[in-house]
Amino acid sequence: MGSSNNQTILVTGGAGFIGTHTVVQLLNDGYNVSIIDNFDNSVMEAVIRIREVVGPQLSNNLEFTQGDLRNKDDLENLFSKTKFDAVIHFAGLKAVGESVANPRRYFDFNLIGTINLYQVMAKYNCKKMVFSSSATVYGQPETIPCVEDFKLQAMNPYGRTKLFLEEIARDIQKAEPEWKIILLRYFNPVGAHESGKLGEDPRGIPNNLMPYIQQVAVGRLPELNVYGHDYPTKDGSAIRDYIHVMDLADGHIAALRKLFTTENLGCTAYNLGTGHGTSVFEMVTAFEKASGKKIPIKLCPRRPGDATEVYASTEKAEKELGWKAKYGVEEMCRDQWNWAKNNPWGYKRKSLE
Ligand code: UD1
């Protein structure tokens, strides 16, 4: 448990996967937290679980508002009532396929929502921001590991919203130097809270590897489609940098601390990854070991737009944030399985959707 401090942090999208885990760590660290979430891809039960995990005492430091960043009044209502010291901005859509089919929805939620947020923050003189970016801004990196000053490139409308929002952050900070903005580029967040009470609960059929594997393990899906087994890698499957969501949560605390302690920070990006690559087949094997379940697989063609191998350079975050991932693939699978077996249907209390 950290020391108590009186800072109040607004967390947008705080009921989502990364949001819930970060809110728990903020509360444990003594921050007051206010969540705004529209429940587009999250549920109230997640907020109830945050309270269960931190206990009644720290729950007193948590407020929740159901609201939508696209509706400026929702933000005005919040900022006119409470003085926020900083904002951690998770709220946004992240399904690549959906963004290709419906780009306007992505521009609306991700761009308009964030622009509104900056405007209301400026009006109320709250100019410290931690923004959820993504390794997707590296596109198909020419070399690995990905270093923060690589040239950036988007591969789809979702990725474009992250890239645009990074550019918007840089422009705002350049024009108004009193802003301090940290862009956190997440690699592949997986795992769950060790209590087994919080985890990822995507709506519909999961797009991402680990939620898919998890649903095969609990019998919701029959088999895993492995997209690509002819990549030029050690076992033919694609390689990613999976990072435990609790490490990611702690990365946000480190970023906040940096915002509060650094003069002339500007707008700067950090990778949040482990620096280690793991293949799809290795991930399947690790999950089978952790769960004792067989994960049947079907070999499928490559998924369009997928990179062969992506992992982070962790040097900048280690040096400047004093943050480093603690957990390996074994712990990621252990905690994800613990969440899955206790909540086979996610936050829904009963079976079947
Ligand atoms: C994906 C997005 C990325 C986004 C991130 C959010 C794409 C192209 N990229 O990253 O923009 O920021 O999610 O979390 O969608 N795999 C399978 N079977 C599956 C699912 C995935 O074999 O059912 C493979 C993929 O081909 C990939 C690896 O598993 O090699 C990881 O996939 P995924 O979890 O979707 O993450 P990314 O593609 O890295």
UniProtKB/TrEMBL annotation:
PANTHER family noted in UniProt: BIFUNCTIONAL UDP-GLUCOSE 4-EPIMERASE AND UDP-XYLOSE 4-EPIMERASE 1, UDP-GLUCOSE 4-EPIMERASE
Protein name as it appears in the record: UDP-glucose 4-epimerase
Catalytic reaction annotation: UDP-alpha-D-glucose = UDP-alpha-D-galactose
Domain NAD(P)-binding residue range list: 10-335
Gene Ontology CC: cytosol
InterPro entries in UniProt: NAD(P)-bd_dom, NAD(P)-bd_dom_sf, UDP_G4E
Keywords: Carbohydrate metabolism, Galactose metabolism, Isomerase, NAD
Recorded coiled-coil stretches: none
Lineage top rank: taxon: Eukaryota
GO molecular function terms noted in the UniProt entry: UDP-glucose 4-epimerase activity
Principal EC category: isomerase
Any single GO BP term: galactose metabolic process
Protein family (similarity comment): Belongs to the NAD(P)-dependent epimerase/dehydratase family.
EC number: 5.1.3.-
Necessary cofactors: NAD(+)
A Pfam family it matches: GDP_Man_Dehyd
